Every structure is written in structure tokens, then in C-alpha cells.
């Protein structure tokens, strides 16, 4: 949602001197290699930090040990065969079973050792099994759980974000054409509304449309039981989508329009735009060739950041609307100390972000002829 | 300074924003002075003894102004503290004494009370008094409520099995205030009487009764599911929200700016390390980490504040500050400062940092709402501070207890409006400051 374009310090304006091709390739390869190493290092360290935090620096292990001992003690004391044993024997049996259970979960090793194994597994996308959470099909595979929760989040977040992105750019272009009008001033005046997050407007929308008017559902993704016919199913999902998407739009729209509008206006005041106007080009052509074209890198950056932002879902919006997506999964994983799920979703996010940052450099060079990959730094 | 205020005046939104923030500051100061912290916590966290006369989820009093119906407030009558309509007399009957208490009151409201309760306090040595409660409706109907052998403190909640049979299963607060045998039950307006007849067997024995008719409306802000007056939470929410927002905004912007300045000035590996840390920080999932800290370590608002600042120090803002510092670094006056022998820290503090203030201040003010809402967001997830009453926690309570579903809209709307006012106030000021400090924006 950040409107400031990320400053990719390695991209710079190329010097006009021509260079020979092999040299360029060599420089490109060296730059690419360095970039990959730097990003991988960042992902590794970020992940390792997350692993420590998600395990409370090893304290989650203590919690798990306590849980194992408790459940084993209960199981042993409930077992009629065990009742015949003497107390020391029974205690020995409990200790033995606890030891086996801890060994099975790898709890017999110190946390530091385990943390590096976690890191290795996570980096190689070997997400493993969850501790408490299960998918609806009953699987404990983190991969299955995440894949099951992905579609609802994608449905909600892509709808909301694409609408927000496209509507705000179209509206911003319209305003930059008609700036100074009442509509323009109204939009500027409304932009502080975006200081409130989507869930906040979600509460108001629920109050009006679900509680008072009763025309839209309170939450969830489909009616229960889900309709059997595909058409009815899609309609039901659509009805449940309206409020969360509307909340997302209200929260993001005005600030986003304001940001883009100002950005477009700055570009439309350039001399070459004036010249194009003087030449008598149609405003559609001017917008496409002289305003949208130079702002393309920024639009792409925002779009890419929006795409990876989809991954984490919206924890609170999904909670308020009871939407069964990734955000809610992360929240319930944290609540039940389910570190494999937390780490699993974090590692995918980290990789996606790193890949996007990496690719953006090249996309910049593709869409903007002034930018050359790896040409020094923009240390101006 | 004068010119600054002149230019602020040109933006009506900034004036409105300033007024809103000023209002919040006044409310905060008033709250801290009139309801000291300890008292607020005691009233918010205390048990039933603190709020015996407060109904559950009652609407705010102002609800009556907008509604055609006149909803009953909480009515309390105590024979130990007689007012008009409350009488107490003692008749001696040989070696017993008959204490006669009558509570007479007008009920002219359009709806039934939330609950009814009679608290009987008796003083006796060893022979417990025998108490009979009788209810008289305006039309003369007489309903025997109960015969009680009193304990020192008897809490009669009208849930007697015999009474339930008399009232045919209709909830007592409805049955006692309506004409029997009519459907749907309508309020019978007029003068009601509760007779408390206590037979005591000792000369020094005494009985007092306290009738509480819990209202549908209570207090200026209504009450919640645990009989807490919401005005307390709404008032105390203001200083907490302001403190959290301001401290977090100041903490993050100033440290971020300082780190960016150090990185740019020293350059080389220092700058490189800072840049890398920023990238790592970008990969860390911000909200999940905050949630983890809330669930695993501490839900205290100050722990959260520390975590928020720690996670934001190496935030995306470093990159934009860095870009500005890089330009400033090349200025000739920095060269001049260096040539007269100014040290590194002197240059950073006296020459670099002041130049960034115009960008910093609007950013700082605009980031306050984000932090205020962040606190509320965490509270909505159930991670609010365990002790302090905050707006977010009120919303969370309301959400969890189905306020929307049960049409208790005031419960959610009041804190939400206050949050909105805070957010809008700071956002409007920040917006205007941005345009004042950055003349380039003023043209467009």
C-alpha cells in the first residue's frame, strides 16, 4: 500500500558512452551474481530471525515438552494395564514414553542445532508438517494447508487489489486531466480517510449492510451448506465478497488516487508534454505516450509490490469478515504456537519478495531506456 | 512562526484537524486529572462490588433523544437512604417487631427494565428475620414475590421457582411491569409499589432493602457485557491513543532519520550494513511478528510500542531519507563546515539533520494515525493491553460479544468514531503540512 516507489539504488542513469557487448555482459553477470548473493543472504538472515521469534528463542520447545509429559501421564494413568504396576515402574514407563515422543519430534537436541535444521529445511522449501493445524482434508502437511488456504485469499485479495489499482489509476488520470475542479478538490479533501485500515471500514459496512439492512452476510465465504451448482456457488461467493472488497477499496482508494494524480501531474507539466500539446496531439495520445510511458516503472513497481502483498493476505480484514484465507491461517498458527506453518508462510513471502526485487531491476531496464542494469549506483 | 500560522490558515482542513487534535488533548488532560490512573484501572478491572448498580449492555442515555420511545434509565431505591416515595416504619408486636418498608415509584417509560434486583441487608444476632416481598401494579394487581428467611446479605434476583410459576414463565422484569394475560406484553405505566415486610425477632435487628431496576439506557456512553461504564474506556482511550501514536511516530522517524544520516555521512561499510539491514527488515513479516510478540511474550501496550519502533527503525523510510541526505551531503556549506574542522557528529547533528526537518515533520504527523490504528488493530485481534482500557479493546469486546448481531451499535460506533476523529485530525494536519513545507506540491 506504500505509495513511495522503492528506491532501487543500483539502477542508475547510464552514461552516454558506448561500451562493447562482452564487457556489458560481464558486468551484467557480475552484477546479477552479487545481487543474488545479497538477496539470498537477506532472506537467510530474515528467516533465521523469524525462526527464533516464532520459537520464542526455544521457549516453544519447553511448552511442547510440557504438553507431551502431560498427555503421556494422562494416557498412562488411564491405561488399565498400567494400574497394576508400582509407582516407580509407572514413572519409569512415563519417562520412557516421554523420551520417545521427544525424540520423535527432535526435541532431544538443543534448540540452536534444531534452529539451523529448520533454516535449512525452510530455505529448501521443505515445509514439513504442522504441529496443530490441519487442512480441511485432515492433512498435516504445511504445503497442503497453505495450498488449501491460498484460493480464498487470492479471490479476495486479487479482486480487491486489482480493482483498487486499476480504478485509482484511471480515476487519477481523469483528475489530472481536470485538475482544480470540484471533483478533484473533493478527492484531495477525502484522502485523509485512508488513514484508517480496511477492517475499520469493514465494521461500518457490516453494521450498515449486514446488521441494519440485513441485505449482505456478516462474513464467511459461502453460505452454509455450500450450494451444489457451480453458478449458485459463484453467486454466493460474490455476495460474500462485496463487503470485504468494498472495505478494502474505501480504505485505499483516496490516498492512492491522490498519490497517482500528483505523480501524473508532475509529469504532465514537463516541457515535452507542453510541446506535444502545442503540436495538437490528442489528449489520449499524450497520456499514453508522454505521461503513462515515463511513469511506467513506478506503476510496475507498485503493481509488483501489490502482487506479493497478496501473499500474506490481510490478517485483520480476514478476521473481521471471517474469511478462510491465509491471513487467518497465519493468525491461528501463531495462536497455537504452530511454528512450521508460521515459518512456512514467511519463507514463501520472503522468496517472493526477493524475486520481485531482483526482477524489478531488469524490468526497469526493459521499460525505461535510460536505465541500465548494474551501471554504478545512483549516488547523485 | 507567524508566517507559518498564516499559511496553515490557508488550509481549512488543517484548521479542522488542529481543532480535532486539540479537542483530544483537552479530553486527555481532563481524563487524567479527574479519573486518576489507579482509579480508572480499579473501576475497569474491578468485580461486581465496584459496579453493582450498572446494567449489562445498556444503551447510552442520549439514545432517548433520538428515539420516539422513552427507554428506562437505571432506578435505584434504598430504604437506608430514604427519598420521596420510600418509607420505613417499625411496629412492635410483643416480642417480635414488624419492619414495614414501602418503595413507591412512577414508571412512565415505554420499555421494560433490563433486570430487577432487590438486595436485602439484615443485621441480627442469631434469629434471622423473615421477609415477605409483595409487588403492587398501578391497576391494583398484587403479586407475591417471595418469602425469605434472610441471610445477612440476601440478593434477590426474582429467579425464584415459585415466582416463575406465578408469572407463567414470563421474565419477571416484563411480567411485573405489564398487564397480565395480554399479548404482546405492553408496559403498564403508573405508580408501582414494592412492599417489604420483615418480621424480626430481636430488638436491635434491622433490615434494609435496595431495589434496583436496571435500565435500558445508562450513562453517557452506555455499558458493556461486564457492567462497565463505557465512558471510562472511551475517555481513557484518548490519552493512551495519543501517547502510543506520538511516541511510536517520534521513536520511529527520529531513529530512522538519524540512522540514515549516519549511513550517508560515513558511507562505505556503515552505509552498506545499514542498507542490508533495511533489506532484511523488509523481508520480515511485520504484523505476524507483532502478533507473535503479543501472544508469546507480552501484550503490554509498552512492549508493543517497543516492538513497533524496533521493527520500523530500519523501515522503508530510510531509503527516502537517504536520497535526500545524499543530495545535502554534496552541498557547499557542508564542505565549508568540514574545512573549519567540524567533527563528524557535529556535521550530522547540526548540518545534515536540520535540512531534513521539512520533509520529516509532515511525515511524522501523517504517520501518527497509522500507529493509533495499529494499536486498535492489535486489540481487535484480541492482543490489546491486558490492563489498560483502549478504544480498540472496546471494539474487540463488542465484536466478540456480538454487538452487531444484537443491535448494540453504540458499543462499536463510539470507539470507532473516536478513532476516526483521531486519525482524521492528524491526517488532515499532516496533509496540509506536507503542502506547506514542500512548495512543489502546492502548485499541483
Tell me what you see in this structure:
The complex is a heterodimer of chains A (about 375) and B (about 450). With about 375 residues, chain A is mainly alpha-helical. Chain A has two domains: about 60-115, no CATH class; about 150-365, MetI-like (MetI-like fold, Orthogonal Bundle). Chain A contains 14 helices and two strands. Chain A has helices spanning about 20-55, 60-80, 80-85, 85-105, 110-125, 140-175, 180-190, 200-210, 230-270, 270-280, 285-310, 315-320, 325-335, 340-365; strands at about 10-15, 370. In chain A, strands 1-2 form a two-stranded antiparallel sheet. Chain A is flat and about 100 Å long. Mean pLDDT of chain A is about 80; it is low at about 1-15 and about 375-380. In chain B, a hairpin with a 5-residue loop joins strand 5 (about 130-135) and strand 6 (about 140-150). Chain B is an alpha+beta fold and about 450 residues long. Helix content of chain B is about 55%, strand content about 15%. In chain B, helix 9 (about 285-295) packs antiparallel against helix 10. Chain B has helices at about 1-10, 10-35, 35-45, 65, 160-165, 170-175, 230-265, 270-285, 285-295, 300-310, 315-330, 330-340, 345-385, 390-400, 410-435, 440-444; strands spanning about 75-80, 85-95, 95-105, 115-125, 130-135, 140-150, 155, 190-200, 205-215. Chain B has two domains: about 1-40 and about 225-440, MetI-like fold (Orthogonal Bundle); about 70-215, Jelly Rolls (Sandwich). At the A-B interface, helix 1, helix 8, helix 9, helix 12 and helix 13 of A face helix 8, helix 9, helix 11, helix 13 and helix 15 of B.
Short overview:
The complex is a heterodimer of chains A (380) and B (444). Chain A is mainly α and 380 residues long.
Amino acid at each position: 500500500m506504500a505509495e513511495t516507489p522503492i528506491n532501487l539504488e543500483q539502477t542508475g542513469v547510464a552514461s552516454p558512452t558506448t561500451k562493447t557487448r562482452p564487457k556489458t555482459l560481464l558486468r551484467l553477470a557480475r552484477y546479477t551474481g552479487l545481487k543474488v548473493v545479497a538477496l539470498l543472504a537477506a532472506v537467510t538472515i530474515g528467516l533465521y530471525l523469524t525462526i527464533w521469534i516464532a520459537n520464542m528463542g526455544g521457549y516453544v520447545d519447553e511448552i511442547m515438552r510440557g504438553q507431551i509429559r502431560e498427555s503421556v501421564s494422562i494416557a498412562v494413568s488411564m491405561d488399565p494395564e498400567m494400574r497394576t504396576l508400582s509407582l516407580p515402574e509407572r514413572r519409569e514407563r512415563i519417562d520412557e514414553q516421554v523420551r520417545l515422543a521427544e525424540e520423535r519430534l527432535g526435541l532431544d537436541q538443543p534448540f540452536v542445532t534444531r534452529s539451523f535444521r529448520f533454516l535449512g529445511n525452510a530455505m529448501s522449501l521443505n515445509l514439513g508438517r504442522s504441529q496443530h493445524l490441519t487442512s480441511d482434508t485432515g492433512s498435516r502437511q504445511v504445503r497442503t494447508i497453505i495450498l488449501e488456504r491460498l484460493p480464498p485469499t487470492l479471490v479476495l485479495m486479487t479482486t480487491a487489489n486489482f480493482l483498487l489499482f486499476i480504478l485509482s489509476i484511471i480515476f487519477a488520470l481523469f483528475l489530472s486531466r481536470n485538475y482544480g475542479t470540484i471533483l478533484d478538490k473533493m478527492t484531495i479533501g477525502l484522502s485523509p480517510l485512508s488513514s484508517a485500515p480496511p477492517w475499520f471500514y469493514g465494521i461500518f459496512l457490516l453494521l450498515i449492510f449486514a446488521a441494519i439492512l440485513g441485505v449482505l452476510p456478516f462474513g464467511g465465504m459461502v453460505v452454509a451448506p455450500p450450494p451444489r451448482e457451480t453458478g449458485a456457488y459463484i453467486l454466493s461467493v460474490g455476495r460474500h465478497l462485496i463487503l470485504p472488497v468494498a472495505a478494502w477499496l474505501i480504505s485505499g482508494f483516496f490516498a492512492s488516487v491522490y498519490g497517482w494524480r500528483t505523480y501524473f501531474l508532475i509529469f504532465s507539466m514537463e516541457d515535452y508534454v507542453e510541446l506535444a500539446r502545442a503540436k495538437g496531439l490528442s489528449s489520449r495520445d499524450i497520456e499514453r505516450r508522454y505521461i503513462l510511458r515515463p511513469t511506467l516503472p513506478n506503476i510496475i513497481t507498485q503493481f509488483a509490490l501489490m502482487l506479493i502483498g497478496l501473499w500474506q493476505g490481510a490478517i485483520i480484514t480476514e478476521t473481521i469478515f471471517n474469511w478462510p484465507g491465509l491471513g487467518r491461517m497465519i493468525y491461528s498458527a501463531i495462536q497455537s504456537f504452530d511454528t512450521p506453518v508460521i515459518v512456512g508462510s514467511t519463507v514463501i513471502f520472503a522468496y517472493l519478495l526477493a524475486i520481485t526485487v531482483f526482477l524489478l531491476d531488469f524490468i526497469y531496464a526493459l521499460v525505461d531506456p535510460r536505465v541500465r542494469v548494474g551501471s554504478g549506483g545512483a549516488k547523485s | 512562526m507567524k508566517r507559518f500560522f498564516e499559511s496553515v490558515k490557508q488550509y481549512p482542513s488543517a484548521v479542522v484537524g488542529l481543532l480535532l487534535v486539540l479537542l483530544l488533548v483537552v479530553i486527555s488532560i481532563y481524563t487524567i486529572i479527574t479519573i486518576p490512573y489507579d482509579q480508572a484501572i480499579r473501576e475497569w478491572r474491578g468485580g461486581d462490588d465496584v459496579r453493582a448498580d450498572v446494567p449489562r449492555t445498556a444503551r447510552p442515555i442520549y439514545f432517548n433523544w433520538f428515539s420516539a420511545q422513552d427507554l428506562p434509565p437505571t432506578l435505584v431505591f434504598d430504604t437506608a437512604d430514604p427519598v420521596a416515595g420510600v418509607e420505613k416504619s417499625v411496629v412492635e408486636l410483643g416480642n417480635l417487631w414488624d419492619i414495614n418498608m414501602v418503595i413507591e415509584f412512577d414508571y412512565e417509560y415505554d420499555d421494560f427494565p433490563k433486570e430487577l434486583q432487590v438486595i436485602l441487608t439484615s443485621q441480627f444476632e442469631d434469629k434471622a428475620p423473615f421477609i415477605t416481598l409483595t409487588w403492587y401494579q398501578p391497576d391494583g394487581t398484587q403479586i407475591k414475590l417471595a418469602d425469605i428467611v434472610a441471610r445477612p446479605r440476601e440478593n434477590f434476583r426474582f429467579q425464584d421457582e415459585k415466582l416463575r410459576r406465578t408469572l407463567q414463565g414470563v421474565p419477571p422484569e416484563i411480567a411485573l411491569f405489564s398487564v397480565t394475560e395480554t399479548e404482546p406484553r405492553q408496559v403498564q405505566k403508573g405508580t408501582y409499589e414494592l412492599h417489604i415486610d420483615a418480621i424480626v425477632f430481636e430488638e436491635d435487628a434491622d433490615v434494609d432493602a435496595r431495589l434496583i431496576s436496571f435500565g435500558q439506557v445508562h450513562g453517557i456512553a452506555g455499558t458493556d457485557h461486564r457492567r462497565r461504564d463505557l465512558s471510562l474506556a472511551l475517555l481513557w482511550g484518548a490519552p493512551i491513543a495519543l501517547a502510543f501514536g506520538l511516541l511510536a511516530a517520534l521513536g520511529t522517524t527520529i531513529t530512522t532519520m538519524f540512522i540514515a544520516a549516519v549511513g550517508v555521512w560515513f558511507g562505505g561499510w556503515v552505509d552498506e550494513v545499514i542498507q542490508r539491514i533495511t533489506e532484511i527488515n523488509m523481508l520480515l513479516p511485520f504484523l505476524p511478528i507483532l502478533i507473535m510478540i503479543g501472544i508469546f511474550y507480552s501484550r503490554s501496550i509498552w512492549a508493543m510500542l517497543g516492538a513497533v519502533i524496533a521493527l520500523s527503525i530500519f523501515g522503508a523510510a530510510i531509503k527516502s531519507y537517504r536520497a535526500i541526505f545524499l543530495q545535502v551531503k554534496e552541498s557547499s556549506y557542508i564542505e565549508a563546515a568540514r574545512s573549519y574542522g567540524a567533527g563528524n557528529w557535529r556535521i550530522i547533528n547540526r548540518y545534515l539533520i536540520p535540512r531534513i526537518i521539512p520533509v520529516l515533520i509532515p511525515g511524522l504527523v501523517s504517520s501518527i494515525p497509522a500507529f493509533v490504528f495499529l494499536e486498535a488493530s492489535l486489540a481487535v485481534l484480541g492482543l490489546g493491553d491486558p490492563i489498560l482500557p483502549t478504544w480498540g479493546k472496546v471494539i474487540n469486546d463488542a465484536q466478540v460479544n456480538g454487538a452487531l448481531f444484537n443491535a448494540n451499535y453504540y458499543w462499536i460506533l463510539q470507539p470507532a468514531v473516536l478513532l476516526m476523529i483521531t486519525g482524521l485530525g492528524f491526517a488532515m494536519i499532516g496533509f496540509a503540512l506536507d503542502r506547506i513545507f514542500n512548495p512543489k506540491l502546492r502548485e499541483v
